[in-house]
Amino acid sequence: MNKVGPREINVPFRPIPLDVPEGMKPNEFFNSPENLKDLKDNNGLLSNSEDLLLYRKALGHSNEFDCSIIYNTSQSVLNPLGRPVRRTQLPGNVRDVWNRMNQIIIGFMLEQYPDPSKHLILAGEASLDATWPITSAGVPSIRMLHNHFIVFNKEELSNAKLADTSNPNLTDGGQHSLFAAYMHDVYVGFLSSLDLEILRPIAGEASSLTLTGYPQGLPSWEVIGGIDSLKNIDFWKEYDLVLKGFLDFYRTFFAQVSSRNSGVPDNAYFPKEIERTLLFNNCFLSAAKKVRDKCIDDAKYASSIRWQPAFKQLIYRNDEGKLIVTISQNSIGNAITELLGVVVNRTPDAEAYEKAEPALIGKLLKLRSRLVEADLGHGIGTKYWGKG
After folding, report:
1. I want to staple 80 with a disulfide (CB 3.0 to 4.6 A). Which of 6, 31, 210, 271 is the partner?
2. Segment 61-99, tens digit of pLDDT
3. Phi, psi of 289 (to 5 degrees)
4. Under a CB-based contact definition with an 8 Å cutoff, are residues 380 and 93 in contact?
Protein backbone atom coordinates (compact mmCIF):
# COMPACT_ATOMS: atom_id res chain seq x y z
CA MET A 1 0.00 0.00 0.00
CA ASN A 2 1.30 3.46 -0.91
CA LYS A 3 2.29 5.79 1.86
CA VAL A 4 -0.19 8.59 2.55
CA GLY A 5 1.16 12.06 1.83
CA PRO A 6 1.19 14.95 -0.64
CA ARG A 7 2.41 14.10 -4.13
CA GLU A 8 4.72 15.99 -6.49
CA ILE A 9 4.22 15.58 -10.22
CA ASN A 10 5.83 16.99 -13.37
CA VAL A 11 3.49 18.37 -16.03
CA PRO A 12 4.99 19.19 -19.46
CA PHE A 13 3.94 22.29 -21.37
CA ARG A 14 4.69 23.91 -24.72
CA PRO A 15 6.92 26.95 -24.17
CA ILE A 16 4.92 30.14 -24.76
CA PRO A 17 6.43 32.44 -27.43
CA LEU A 18 5.86 35.66 -25.52
CA ASP A 19 8.52 38.31 -25.22
CA VAL A 20 8.37 40.30 -22.03
CA PRO A 21 9.33 43.91 -22.77
CA GLU A 22 12.72 44.97 -21.44
CA GLY A 23 12.51 46.43 -17.97
CA MET A 24 9.28 44.63 -17.02
CA LYS A 25 8.98 41.73 -14.63
CA PRO A 26 6.99 38.77 -16.03
CA ASN A 27 4.11 39.13 -13.58
CA GLU A 28 3.82 42.84 -14.44
CA PHE A 29 3.49 41.96 -18.13
CA PHE A 30 1.06 39.10 -17.49
CA ASN A 31 -1.42 41.60 -16.02
CA SER A 32 -1.34 43.78 -19.13
CA PRO A 33 -4.12 44.00 -21.75
CA GLU A 34 -1.53 42.90 -24.34
CA ASN A 35 -0.93 39.57 -22.61
CA LEU A 36 -4.63 38.96 -22.00
CA LYS A 37 -5.24 39.50 -25.71
CA ASP A 38 -2.67 36.79 -26.44
CA LEU A 39 -4.35 34.47 -23.93
CA LYS A 40 -7.63 34.85 -25.80
CA ASP A 41 -6.16 34.64 -29.30
CA ASN A 42 -3.95 31.59 -28.68
CA ASN A 43 -5.85 29.72 -25.96
CA GLY A 44 -9.39 31.10 -25.93
CA LEU A 45 -12.24 28.61 -26.29
CA LEU A 46 -15.38 30.66 -25.61
CA SER A 47 -16.37 34.18 -24.60
CA ASN A 48 -19.62 36.01 -23.90
CA SER A 49 -21.02 39.50 -23.49
CA GLU A 50 -20.46 39.30 -19.72
CA ASP A 51 -16.66 39.34 -20.39
CA LEU A 52 -16.26 35.76 -19.15
CA LEU A 53 -13.58 33.91 -21.10
CA LEU A 54 -13.11 30.11 -21.11
CA TYR A 55 -9.56 29.19 -22.07
CA ARG A 56 -7.12 26.30 -22.26
CA LYS A 57 -4.41 26.53 -19.61
CA ALA A 58 -1.16 26.90 -21.54
CA LEU A 59 0.77 26.54 -18.28
CA GLY A 60 -1.52 23.93 -16.84
CA HIS A 61 -1.75 21.77 -13.75
CA SER A 62 -2.85 18.64 -15.63
CA ASN A 63 -2.80 17.48 -19.24
CA GLU A 64 -5.71 15.14 -18.52
CA PHE A 65 -8.22 18.01 -18.23
CA ASP A 66 -7.46 21.62 -17.41
CA CYS A 67 -9.21 24.88 -18.24
CA SER A 68 -10.24 28.14 -16.61
CA ILE A 69 -12.89 30.83 -16.77
CA ILE A 70 -11.53 34.34 -16.28
CA TYR A 71 -13.53 37.52 -15.78
CA ASN A 72 -11.58 39.38 -18.41
CA THR A 73 -11.68 43.03 -17.36
CA SER A 74 -8.28 43.79 -18.90
CA GLN A 75 -9.80 46.12 -21.50
CA SER A 76 -12.21 47.92 -19.16
CA VAL A 77 -10.14 48.19 -15.95
CA LEU A 78 -6.55 49.06 -16.80
CA ASN A 79 -5.40 49.22 -13.17
CA PRO A 80 -4.47 45.58 -12.34
CA LEU A 81 -5.03 46.30 -8.63
CA GLY A 82 -8.55 47.60 -9.27
CA ARG A 83 -10.04 44.55 -10.98
CA PRO A 84 -12.64 42.22 -9.46
CA VAL A 85 -10.83 39.30 -7.85
CA ARG A 86 -13.57 37.25 -6.15
CA ARG A 87 -17.18 36.23 -6.75
CA THR A 88 -18.57 38.67 -4.20
CA GLN A 89 -17.35 41.55 -6.39
CA LEU A 90 -19.17 40.40 -9.55
CA PRO A 91 -22.20 42.27 -10.92
CA GLY A 92 -25.38 40.20 -10.42
CA ASN A 93 -25.86 39.30 -14.07
CA VAL A 94 -22.23 38.22 -14.42
CA ARG A 95 -22.44 36.13 -11.24
CA ASP A 96 -25.49 34.27 -12.56
CA VAL A 97 -23.75 33.39 -15.82
CA TRP A 98 -20.56 32.52 -13.92
CA ASN A 99 -22.47 30.09 -11.69
CA ARG A 100 -24.21 28.41 -14.63
CA MET A 101 -20.89 27.96 -16.43
CA ASN A 102 -19.37 26.44 -13.30
CA GLN A 103 -22.29 24.04 -12.89
CA ILE A 104 -22.10 22.81 -16.48
CA ILE A 105 -18.32 22.37 -16.43
CA ILE A 106 -18.34 20.45 -13.13
CA GLY A 107 -21.19 18.27 -14.43
CA PHE A 108 -19.20 17.61 -17.61
CA MET A 109 -16.14 16.57 -15.60
CA LEU A 110 -18.19 14.16 -13.49
CA GLU A 111 -19.73 12.69 -16.65
CA GLN A 112 -16.37 12.24 -18.38
CA TYR A 113 -14.68 10.87 -15.25
CA PRO A 114 -17.38 8.96 -13.33
CA ASP A 115 -15.10 6.76 -11.15
CA PRO A 116 -13.76 8.53 -8.01
CA SER A 117 -11.19 5.77 -7.53
CA LYS A 118 -9.57 6.63 -10.88
CA HIS A 119 -9.70 10.42 -11.10
CA LEU A 120 -9.49 13.41 -8.77
CA ILE A 121 -11.82 16.21 -9.86
CA LEU A 122 -11.64 19.76 -8.50
CA ALA A 123 -12.96 23.21 -9.34
CA GLY A 124 -12.33 26.41 -7.49
CA GLU A 125 -10.64 29.75 -7.18
CA ALA A 126 -7.73 31.28 -5.34
CA SER A 127 -7.79 34.84 -4.06
CA LEU A 128 -6.10 37.38 -6.29
CA ASP A 129 -6.53 40.31 -3.92
CA ALA A 130 -3.96 43.10 -3.97
CA THR A 131 -2.43 41.74 -0.78
CA TRP A 132 1.22 42.31 -1.73
CA PRO A 133 3.09 44.63 -4.10
CA ILE A 134 2.60 43.39 -7.65
CA THR A 135 6.33 42.64 -8.05
CA SER A 136 6.59 40.41 -4.97
CA ALA A 137 7.44 36.77 -5.43
CA GLY A 138 4.37 34.57 -5.28
CA VAL A 139 1.92 37.21 -6.48
CA PRO A 140 -0.50 35.70 -9.03
CA SER A 141 0.47 36.21 -12.67
CA ILE A 142 -3.03 37.28 -13.74
CA ARG A 143 -4.75 39.51 -11.20
CA MET A 144 -8.33 38.88 -12.25
CA LEU A 145 -11.00 36.54 -10.94
CA HIS A 146 -10.62 33.11 -12.49
CA ASN A 147 -11.71 29.59 -11.69
CA HIS A 148 -9.73 26.38 -12.23
CA PHE A 149 -11.24 23.12 -13.51
CA ILE A 150 -8.79 20.25 -13.18
CA VAL A 151 -8.74 16.45 -13.37
CA PHE A 152 -5.84 14.27 -12.18
CA ASN A 153 -5.30 10.60 -12.93
CA LYS A 154 -5.09 8.95 -9.50
CA GLU A 155 -2.79 6.20 -10.76
CA GLU A 156 -0.31 8.86 -11.82
CA LEU A 157 -0.61 10.54 -8.42
CA SER A 158 -0.20 7.20 -6.66
CA ASN A 159 3.03 6.50 -8.56
CA ALA A 160 4.40 10.02 -8.04
CA LYS A 161 7.04 10.79 -5.43
CA LEU A 162 6.01 12.14 -2.05
CA ALA A 163 6.26 15.92 -1.82
CA ASP A 164 8.26 17.63 0.90
CA THR A 165 5.71 18.39 3.61
CA SER A 166 7.72 21.49 4.59
CA ASN A 167 7.00 23.02 1.17
CA PRO A 168 5.62 26.47 2.08
CA ASN A 169 2.88 26.09 -0.54
CA LEU A 170 1.34 23.17 1.35
CA THR A 171 -0.48 25.49 3.70
CA ASP A 172 -2.90 23.08 5.26
CA GLY A 173 -0.69 20.98 7.51
CA GLY A 174 -0.50 23.58 10.26
CA GLN A 175 3.11 24.67 10.56
CA HIS A 176 2.81 27.23 7.77
CA SER A 177 -0.80 28.04 8.55
CA LEU A 178 -1.39 30.96 10.86
CA PHE A 179 -5.00 29.96 11.46
CA ALA A 180 -4.31 26.29 12.12
CA ALA A 181 -1.29 27.02 14.28
CA TYR A 182 -2.99 29.52 16.60
CA MET A 183 -6.76 29.15 16.50
CA HIS A 184 -7.97 26.15 14.54
CA ASP A 185 -11.00 25.48 16.71
CA VAL A 186 -12.43 29.01 16.71
CA TYR A 187 -11.84 29.28 12.94
CA VAL A 188 -13.68 26.05 12.19
CA GLY A 189 -16.37 26.90 14.75
CA PHE A 190 -17.08 30.33 13.29
CA LEU A 191 -17.44 28.99 9.73
CA SER A 192 -19.51 26.05 10.94
CA SER A 193 -22.04 28.44 12.46
CA LEU A 194 -23.16 29.70 9.04
CA ASP A 195 -26.83 29.21 8.20
CA LEU A 196 -26.56 26.51 5.51
CA GLU A 197 -29.01 23.88 4.28
CA ILE A 198 -27.52 22.38 1.11
CA LEU A 199 -24.01 22.41 2.54
CA ARG A 200 -23.68 20.07 5.54
CA PRO A 201 -20.59 20.37 7.78
CA ILE A 202 -18.44 17.23 7.90
CA ALA A 203 -15.39 16.30 9.97
CA GLY A 204 -11.96 16.87 8.48
CA GLU A 205 -11.17 13.16 8.29
CA ALA A 206 -14.25 12.48 6.16
CA SER A 207 -13.23 15.12 3.65
CA SER A 208 -9.59 14.01 3.31
CA LEU A 209 -8.32 12.09 0.29
CA THR A 210 -6.88 8.69 1.21
CA LEU A 211 -3.94 9.12 -1.14
CA THR A 212 -2.64 12.49 0.08
CA GLY A 213 -4.32 13.02 3.46
CA TYR A 214 -5.35 16.51 2.30
CA PRO A 215 -7.07 18.83 2.97
CA GLN A 216 -6.03 18.73 6.61
CA GLY A 217 -8.35 19.94 9.34
CA LEU A 218 -10.11 22.59 7.29
CA PRO A 219 -13.80 23.44 7.65
CA SER A 220 -15.54 21.32 5.02
CA TRP A 221 -19.10 20.75 3.85
CA GLU A 222 -20.73 17.95 1.88
CA VAL A 223 -22.96 19.07 -1.00
CA ILE A 224 -26.28 17.37 -0.20
CA GLY A 225 -27.78 16.24 -3.51
CA GLY A 226 -24.47 16.23 -5.39
CA ILE A 227 -24.34 17.65 -8.89
CA ASP A 228 -28.11 18.24 -8.98
CA SER A 229 -27.74 20.77 -6.15
CA LEU A 230 -25.34 22.81 -8.27
CA LYS A 231 -28.28 23.49 -10.59
CA ASN A 232 -30.00 25.22 -7.67
CA ILE A 233 -29.24 28.93 -7.23
CA ASP A 234 -29.49 28.42 -3.46
CA PHE A 235 -26.34 26.27 -3.57
CA TRP A 236 -24.35 29.14 -5.07
CA LYS A 237 -25.73 31.55 -2.48
CA GLU A 238 -24.51 29.19 0.25
CA TYR A 239 -21.16 28.79 -1.53
CA ASP A 240 -20.84 32.57 -1.33
CA LEU A 241 -21.78 32.53 2.36
CA VAL A 242 -18.76 30.30 3.02
CA LEU A 243 -16.54 32.88 1.33
CA LYS A 244 -18.17 35.77 3.18
CA GLY A 245 -17.68 33.98 6.49
CA PHE A 246 -14.01 33.46 5.70
CA LEU A 247 -13.57 37.11 4.73
CA ASP A 248 -15.18 38.23 7.99
CA PHE A 249 -12.90 36.00 10.04
CA TYR A 250 -9.76 37.10 8.23
CA ARG A 251 -10.54 40.81 8.33
CA THR A 252 -11.53 40.69 11.99
CA PHE A 253 -8.40 38.83 13.00
CA PHE A 254 -5.93 41.02 11.15
CA ALA A 255 -7.74 44.16 12.23
CA GLN A 256 -7.02 42.97 15.78
CA VAL A 257 -3.40 42.24 14.87
CA SER A 258 -3.00 45.70 13.37
CA SER A 259 -4.87 47.68 16.04
CA ARG A 260 -5.72 46.31 19.49
CA ASN A 261 -9.48 46.30 20.28
CA SER A 262 -10.31 47.42 16.76
CA GLY A 263 -13.86 46.08 16.89
CA VAL A 264 -16.12 44.79 14.13
CA PRO A 265 -14.85 45.69 10.62
CA ASP A 266 -17.02 48.24 8.80
CA ASN A 267 -17.54 45.94 5.80
CA ALA A 268 -18.50 42.85 7.83
CA TYR A 269 -21.15 40.48 6.47
CA PHE A 270 -21.96 38.96 9.89
CA PRO A 271 -21.35 41.70 12.48
CA LYS A 272 -23.42 40.09 15.25
CA GLU A 273 -21.64 36.73 14.92
CA ILE A 274 -18.26 38.50 14.94
CA GLU A 275 -19.10 40.37 18.12
CA ARG A 276 -20.57 37.31 19.80
CA THR A 277 -18.14 34.55 18.78
CA LEU A 278 -14.85 36.23 17.88
CA LEU A 279 -14.43 39.45 19.83
CA PHE A 280 -15.40 37.72 23.06
CA ASN A 281 -13.17 34.68 22.47
CA ASN A 282 -10.00 34.67 24.57
CA CYS A 283 -8.20 32.26 22.23
CA PHE A 284 -8.92 34.47 19.22
CA LEU A 285 -7.74 37.67 20.93
CA SER A 286 -4.71 35.99 22.47
CA ALA A 287 -3.63 34.73 19.04
CA ALA A 288 -3.97 38.26 17.63
CA LYS A 289 -1.72 39.55 20.43
CA LYS A 290 0.94 36.91 19.68
CA VAL A 291 0.99 37.84 16.01
CA ARG A 292 0.97 41.59 16.77
CA ASP A 293 3.92 41.27 19.16
CA LYS A 294 5.89 39.24 16.63
CA CYS A 295 5.18 41.75 13.87
CA ILE A 296 6.61 44.52 16.04
CA ASP A 297 9.81 42.57 16.75
CA ASP A 298 10.35 40.71 13.47
CA ALA A 299 10.32 42.77 10.25
CA LYS A 300 10.61 39.74 7.96
CA TYR A 301 7.66 38.04 9.65
CA ALA A 302 5.55 41.20 9.40
CA SER A 303 6.37 41.54 5.72
CA SER A 304 5.23 37.98 5.02
CA ILE A 305 1.69 38.56 6.31
CA ARG A 306 -1.19 39.18 3.95
CA TRP A 307 -3.11 41.92 5.70
CA GLN A 308 -5.99 41.64 3.25
CA PRO A 309 -8.04 38.46 2.71
CA ALA A 310 -6.35 35.77 0.64
CA PHE A 311 -8.13 32.44 0.17
CA LYS A 312 -8.53 29.22 -1.75
CA GLN A 313 -12.06 27.81 -2.08
CA LEU A 314 -12.98 24.75 -4.04
CA ILE A 315 -15.44 22.00 -4.84
CA TYR A 316 -13.92 18.54 -5.22
CA ARG A 317 -14.97 14.91 -5.32
CA ASN A 318 -13.83 12.77 -2.40
CA ASP A 319 -13.01 9.05 -2.41
CA GLU A 320 -16.66 8.14 -1.85
CA GLY A 321 -17.82 10.17 -4.85
CA LYS A 322 -19.36 12.97 -2.77
CA LEU A 323 -18.89 16.61 -3.68
CA ILE A 324 -17.11 18.53 -0.93
CA VAL A 325 -16.65 22.28 -0.42
CA THR A 326 -13.71 23.62 1.56
CA ILE A 327 -11.89 26.92 2.05
CA SER A 328 -8.41 27.81 3.24
CA GLN A 329 -6.33 30.90 3.84
CA ASN A 330 -3.75 31.33 1.10
CA SER A 331 0.00 31.35 1.58
CA ILE A 332 3.10 32.16 -0.47
CA GLY A 333 1.98 29.81 -3.21
CA ASN A 334 -1.22 30.16 -5.20
CA ALA A 335 -1.55 26.76 -6.85
CA ILE A 336 -5.00 25.59 -5.84
CA THR A 337 -4.04 21.94 -6.33
CA GLU A 338 -1.85 22.13 -3.24
CA LEU A 339 -4.97 22.47 -1.12
CA LEU A 340 -5.54 18.77 -1.91
CA GLY A 341 -1.89 17.83 -1.52
CA VAL A 342 -0.83 17.90 -5.18
CA VAL A 343 2.31 19.91 -5.97
CA VAL A 344 2.75 20.54 -9.71
CA ASN A 345 6.11 21.21 -11.34
CA ARG A 346 5.55 22.65 -14.81
CA THR A 347 8.31 21.51 -17.16
CA PRO A 348 8.94 22.89 -20.69
CA ASP A 349 8.67 19.91 -23.06
CA ALA A 350 6.77 20.58 -26.28
CA GLU A 351 7.06 17.00 -27.55
CA ALA A 352 5.60 15.45 -24.39
CA TYR A 353 2.82 18.04 -24.25
CA GLU A 354 1.83 17.52 -27.87
CA LYS A 355 1.29 13.80 -27.24
CA ALA A 356 -1.42 14.64 -24.69
CA GLU A 357 -2.80 17.67 -26.55
CA PRO A 358 -5.26 16.04 -29.01
CA ALA A 359 -7.22 14.22 -26.28
CA LEU A 360 -7.18 17.28 -24.03
CA ILE A 361 -8.40 19.62 -26.77
CA GLY A 362 -11.05 17.12 -27.82
CA LYS A 363 -12.60 17.21 -24.35
CA LEU A 364 -12.39 21.01 -24.13
CA LEU A 365 -14.13 21.46 -27.48
CA LYS A 366 -16.86 19.02 -26.44
CA LEU A 367 -17.33 21.06 -23.27
CA ARG A 368 -17.45 24.26 -25.32
CA SER A 369 -20.33 22.84 -27.38
CA ARG A 370 -22.30 22.25 -24.15
CA LEU A 371 -21.80 25.86 -23.08
CA VAL A 372 -22.74 27.26 -26.50
CA GLU A 373 -25.88 25.10 -26.50
CA ALA A 374 -26.80 26.55 -23.09
CA ASP A 375 -26.47 30.08 -24.53
CA LEU A 376 -23.43 30.83 -22.38
CA GLY A 377 -21.19 32.21 -25.10
CA HIS A 378 -19.76 31.78 -28.58
CA GLY A 379 -16.73 29.86 -29.76
CA ILE A 380 -13.31 31.43 -30.36
CA GLY A 381 -11.06 30.30 -33.21
CA THR A 382 -7.28 29.92 -32.74
CA LYS A 383 -4.53 28.33 -34.80
CA TYR A 384 -5.21 25.11 -32.87
CA TRP A 385 -9.02 24.93 -33.29
CA GLY A 386 -11.90 26.63 -35.12
CA LYS A 387 -14.83 28.66 -33.82
CA GLY A 388 -17.01 25.54 -33.77
Report:
1. 31
2. 999 999 999 999 888 888 877 888 889 999 999 999 999
3. -65, -45
4. no
